[in-house]
Amino acid sequence: MLEVMRRRSELLSKIASQRGEAAGIGARWQAPLALADQGLAAVHFLRSNPALVAGVVALLVIRRRGVVGLAKGVWRMWKGYRLFTAFSAKLLSRR
Q1: Tens digit of each residue's pLDDT (9 = 90 or more) over 15-46
Q2: How confident is the model at residue 72, as a pLDDT?
Q3: Burial (Cβ within 10 Å: 0-12, 13-18, ≥19) of residue 62
């Protein structure tokens, strides 16, 4: 029984030292993991708010090309859309 008690004491001291090592490792990884967690939260926010992302992109485009450049781009997209719908309607009417 005395041998079991001694072995138990050794194991408890080993457990305490391993617990201290694990705490040290956890403390070193706390800052990088917190940064990664903030990055994931930012990605989740952007994915759940696509209108906000589109607005920011539109502001960047406006700032870079100006309002006139944005109007030209919208006009070209509208004309391209109308051309595409007319062309697809012709293809579908041939069937």
Answers
A1: 999 999 999 999 999 999 999 999 999 999 98
A2: 86
A3: middle
- Number of domains observed in the structure of the chain: 2
Neighbours of 70 (CB within 10 A): 15
Round to whole Å and give the CA distance between 41 and 30: 16
Same domain, 26 and 3: yes
Sign of the C-alpha dihedral computed for residues 86, 87, 88 and 89 taken in this order: positive
Asked if residue 39 and residue 22 are part of one domain, the reply reads yes
Please state the pTM of the whole predicted model. 0.46
DSSP state of 95: -
Note down the domain range covering 80.
49-95
Distance CA 79, CA 52 (A): 26
In whole angstroms, what is the distance from residue 74 CA to residue 61 CA?
Answer: 12
Contact 34, 27 (CB under 8 A): no
Q: Are residues 4 and 16 in the same domain?
A: yes
